[in-house]
Amino acid sequence: MFQNLPLFPEKASTIAYRVDALFYFLTAVAVFFAALIFILIVVFAVKYRRRSATEKGAPIEGNIALEILWTVVPLGITMVMFGWGALVYVDMFDPPSNALEIDVVAKQWMWKMQHREGQSEINELHVPVGRPVQLMMTSEDVIHSFFVPAFRIKMDVLPGRYTTLWFQPTKAGEYHLFCAEFCGTQHSGMLGRVIVMEPAEYQGWLDGGATGMSMEQAGAQLFQRLGCGVCHRPDGAGQGPSLVGIFGRPVKLEGGGAVTADEAYIRRSILEPHAQVVAGYKPVMPTFKGLVSEDGILQIIAYLKSLQKEGPQAQR
Amino acid sequence: MNAQRREHYLNVNYGVRSWLLTTDHKRIAWLYLVSVTFFFFVGGFFATLIRLELLTPQGDLVQAETYNKLFTMHGVTMVFFFLIPSIPAVLGNFLIPMMIGARDLAFPKLNLASWYIFIIGGLFTLAATAAGGVDTGWTFYTPYSSIYSNTHVALTVVGIFVTGFSSILTGLNFIVTIHKMRAPGLTWFRLPLFVWAHYATSIIFVLGTPVLAITLALVGLERIFGLGIFDPARGGDPVLFQHLFWFYSHPAVYIMILPSMGIVSELIACFSRKRIFGYAFVAFASLGIAIIGFLVWGHHMFVSGQSVHAGLVFSLLSFLVAIPSAIKVFNWTATLYKGSVSYDAPMLYSLGFIGVFTIGGLTGLFLATLGFDVHVTDTYFVVAHFHYIMVGGAVMGYLGGIHFWWPKMTGRLYPEILARLAALIVFLGFNLTFFPQFVLGFLGMPRRYHAYPPEFQVLNVMSSAGASILAVGYVLPLVYLIWSLRYGAVAGRNPWGARGLEWETDSPPPTHNFDTTPRVTESAYAYEKEPEEIYHFGATAHV
């Protein structure tokens, strides 16, 4: 419409359509009430303008019915906003189970993406159109925020924690990726592109850019190199518990309690092994802090997830 | 009558000492007025450079590092050294004792101490600026502020920490004064709404500010001594900082807007010559905002990694806090109905306030809506929203109040036509500056960006153009108000025909405000009655 004056951002994900529908509703309500107030003010100010120096206003103290009306009506309307907004929000953070998983590591001032198949990219993210994609994100330093306006999604990326985000692209093309949380000097330079491709094209990109090793393989290699397998033997006969099939399952802890062996638990166990020790084992594991990068931890997690598929207790 | 001969609080004695050691609430109000005006223009200077930089998509006027310091110092100066103290410490200080028929605040020396504490805090922050500034954003998010930033975080944080005590003591002073020093017959429901608004604000001062002090002290301790409180590398939690920070800083927004709402209630009633519509609803709305306002901080954190359930609760509560604001807007509008409306400059600011506050409030609903907030949080949509509240709302109310009570404070009138022109320029300049930012945010432009993609340029140029108009609107009153001190027409006691005890004494008032303690026999805004029927001076008055 206006080449230099865009008024609406591009819509390129399934959720974008729902967010925009919500936006139109909110705007309609806002325009109605703003117009109501503006018109009333102008009409009253003109109609009841002071006509003589001694004139006084009518002695009106208020009206209970009106007070109730303009308390209850806004309350009702805002509850609709709340409910509708909540529905969209809950779905935004509830990824479908068949999502393509990609890991994101942020640092001052770049984005590193790792695909399960082994490709890693910097400040670019290639994804296929029409398939849900889930991002597992962490930061190496300060808080960043992963923001793709065309998808209407955003999530902070925190150091020491994993946060997730999902989207399903609906249109091939290139879209802005912004860092939305102030992160230091080059914050406004922490830009990237999300490149949405047709599935066949995406497959070609995956094949073309392959490094020869998938994330699981890289994780397996790292697992080997760091000597994890010496204690965490698959048969469970080592000093540490077997990690086969452990991902996503509850683990009993020394001293009582249990925890689900998710990404956060595995990360913590690598960096602070004595924090949550598995029941029946001694706290003998050394920390791997400084020996393994955030990317490396994500590779190890990918490897442990794969053990689930292949291991003896494979079926959930 | 010879205004030059009569003794009043301004001419009772002269000299720097008589001002710096005064315990007269009216003189302390002037100390604050001069200080916050200074900080306003310092903050405005930073804003000017920001808007100049954003004229072009490339970061070409200043370096990225400098730009980050500019928006940080703009935010810190405006929030902590202008917006928070402005109305309470200037107009609240001057007017609350007069409005309730008292000679001074409950603790006059504490009042002076509050000003010194404010100035000491301000000097720390100015020192931090002079030493090279700070680049964390006024929100000081960890671990960037506590570990990674190489700028003067500690010095700035100390400044804000110290200044906080000034707020706490002012709030304490107001609460005690309003409880204990009201004139005979001046019951709670006869109080001007300005006093109610300051009572609500004082509650936030006293309950909220200590949390900010603790939070900033923890940032300082982590930064200086390496304690692991917020830094995950040392076992801390960076999101904990956000909870603590917003527990104060969201209610702080109400510190800025509630006093302004109090002013608008006074002005709308006066220039409609009519009682405020639904007095009790407007009064309780202030308290409602102050109380519910403490329970909504998590709406700043919908994408911070807090749980989805927490998001749902904070969203619901945020919608609830919008209701009292809506009630106020409807009541102000209804007050105009069958009034006798004049268009004096303070009234123009009030009508402008209702307009921009309505837009600011309605866009707040967008941000409270979870599914939409995810897209626009941390973008210019948020920047536009809070400037509509804090600049459009709070500053416009402040300017309306300064114009309204200027004749009382100085005994002089300002040039009315110029003042109306300034009000119009502020309104137009403000909207041109900030409305395009809603669109920018919806398009996805993140805040705190030194450089930006070229498709955002047209809207940024509009915003910068608006800012230059707004600057004219802010400098103009500075010029003619100073001019009026010497050349303005003598105002007399009550140039607006207003109701309220402050208008029943001379302009400028005598040091002790009233010669005898007044008795009050009517509720506020009894414009249908003559002042003599409402306020009774001398020993013979009966309630």
Notable features of this structure?
heterodimer; A: alpha+beta; 5-stranded mixed beta sheet; 7 helices; 12 strands; elongated; disordered C terminus; B: 543 residues; two-stranded antiparallel sheet; 2 strands
How would you describe this structure to a colleague?
- The complex is a heterodimer of chains A (316) and B (543).
- Chain A is α+β, with helices and mostly antiparallel strands and 316 residues long.
- Chain A has helices at 14-47, 64-92, 199-208, 215-225, 228-231, 263-271, 294-310; strands spanning 100-107, 110-115, 120-122, 124-128, 133-139, 144-148, 153-157, 163-167, 173-179, 192-197, 250-252, 258-260.
- Chain A is built from 7 helices and 12 strands.
- In chain A, the strands form 3 sheets. Chain A has a 5-stranded mixed beta sheet with strand order 3-2-1-5-8, covered by helices on one side.
- In chain A, a hairpin with a 4-residue loop joins strand 6 (144-148) and strand 7.
- In chain A, helix 1 (14-47) packs antiparallel against helix 2 (64-92) and helix 4 (215-225) crosses helix 7 (294-310).
- The model of chain A is unreliable at 311-316 (pLDDT under 50).
- Chain B is mainly α and 543 residues long.
- Chain B has helices at 16-20, 25-53, 64-99, 108-130, 144-148, 153-180, 193-225, 238-272, 279-292, 308-336, 345-368, 370-376, 380-410, 416-443, 457-487, 531-534, and strands spanning 519-520, 535-536.
- In chain B, strands 1-2 form a two-stranded antiparallel sheet.
- Chain B starts with 15 loop residues before the first helix and ends in a 7-residue tail after the last strand.
- Classes of the chains: A alpha+beta (316), B mainly alpha (543).
